[in-house]
Amino acid sequence: MFLSRLHLRNYRNFAEQVVEFPPQGAALVGDNGQGKTNLLEAIYYLEIFRSFRGAPDEQLVRFGEEVFRAEARLSDGLGGDRTVSAAFDRRARKKKVALNGAEPERLGDALGQVGAVIFSPSDVEIVAGGPGGRRRFLDIVLSLAQPGYLSAVQRYRQALFQRNTLLRKGSSRALVEVWDAGLVLAGSRVIAARQRWVAARADSFAAHYERVAGGQPGRLGYAPSAPEMAEAQGEAQVQEAFRGALARAADREQRRGMTLVGPHRDDLRFTTLSADGAVLELRTYGSGGQQRTGAIALRMVEAETIHEARGRQPLILLDDVFAELDPGRSQRIIDWIETEDGGQVILTSPKPTDFHVRGDTLPRWGIRDGVILQD
Ligand SMILES: Nc1ncnc2c1ncn2[C@@H]1O[C@H](COP(=O)(O)OP(=O)(O)OP(=O)(O)O)[C@@H](O)[C@H]1O
Ligand SMILES: [Mg+2]
User: Fold this and answer.
1) Residue 341 burial (CB < 10 Å; 0-12/13-18/19+)?
2) FRET label pair with 239: which of 28, 293, 309, 366, CA 20 to 30 Å apart?
3) Pairing mode of beta strands 364-368, 371-373
């Protein structure tokens, strides 16, 4: 399956745009502010039904318009086609998603149809920013790759909200505890899935980091909200550890008026080693380039995850990724794309000199003021 056609109407600065993509992909070159990121954002919107930039749907509607619509056609090259579409009405604040023209029962059923991974300059925030961004990363990847994960997150949020409301009001322990069973059940599912994913991907992350960084080591680790959860293996043990951690935190929770342990306080840890062997957090001690390398290695393991979950090469979207990297690192990312034997790649850059991916097999298109210029 590859993205063979994209149709945008009133999405950001695109009025009406139809693009036909070849199986190998395309390279888009255009000045700043012409719509390069908007185009990749629209494609990825059809993967997760929201902006990867975190923009609310209202902002995606073209200025002065009411409704945006985006539709992707995915083809297997043998005449088998599927479509995925999304529309948002700003006035009614209503989002509509369809697979082959039919609305799925739940939005969650439609996630991940495109099978894409997006690399963007803002990814560095996953490594360098606060833990919320790292949890969001985990939630998106695991929602795309694991059936049941998203609904566990939603059940957890529900229980957490109720429990926090009671704690904030200073309700009695007995009332608060009513929510503990649901919190632990849904939360342990989330924690165990995150833990398993990090454990399964840690070696691969280290290998990608080391290769892109030209030999410097990099590690990915899971940092749960309470120490007992670090030792727990599998969902049953996590449940026990979670209950223990809640019991231990009960007095503090009453004082602070909020739930203090659980997956809403999880984190990921990115580390490297200093010249004398000390473990350094990339978040606090990493250079800009090292943090960027961590984010790229993370996207690479995400690509592997999507590949396994979908059983095919993901569509790789590269938004101006070479901008802040030294030539060695850029080349090693290109090498990685070459080894992704033949999956589709759509990349953007303001500089025509940036494209050395796949020799010259990718067609080069221009983009100006929300219009794609194909020759
Ligand atoms: N809802 C909207 N309606 C119309 N135009 C919009 C909307 N949202 C953003 N834009 C316009 O889209 C343009 C930005 O597009 P985009 O972020 O895709 O640029 P870019 O080509 O990636 O540039 P850069 O090289 O700087 O990253 C801006 O000119 C902005 O005004
Ligand atoms: Mg951009």
Assistant:
1) exposed
2) 309
3) antiparallel
| Domains, the chain, ordered by start | 1-115+315-375 (3.40.50.300), 121-311 (1.20.1050.90)
Of 90, 51, 44, residue with least CA distance to 67: 90
For ligand 1, pick from 9, 10, 11, 13 the residue to mutate: most ligand atoms within 8 Å of CB. Answer: 13
Neighbours of 107 (CB within 10 A): 15
Give the count of beta carbons closer than 10 Å to the beta carbon of residue 335: 12
Contact in structure between 253 and 172 (CB atoms under 8 Å): no
351 is in an annotated binding site: no
Beta partners for 272?
280
Is 36 annotated as ligand-binding?
yes
Residue whose CA lies nearest to ligand 1 atom number 19? 33
Q: Does 158 appear as a known binding residue?
A: no
| Distance from the alpha carbon of residue 151 to the mean position of ligand 2, in angstroms | 32
- Ligand 1 contact via 14 beta carbon (within 6 Å): no
Q: Which residues have C-beta within 8 Å of that of residue 332, sequence separation ≥ 6?
A: 211, 212, 214
Average confidence (pLDDT) per 10 residues, the chain, 375 residues: 97 98 94 98 98 97 98 92 97 97 92 96 96 98 95 98 97 94 98 97 97 94 95 94 97 97 98 93 93 96 95 94 84 83 87 70 92 92
Among 332, 263, 328, 324, which Cα is nearest to 297's?
A: 332
The reply to whether ligand 1 has any atom less than 6 angstroms from the CB of 35 is: yes
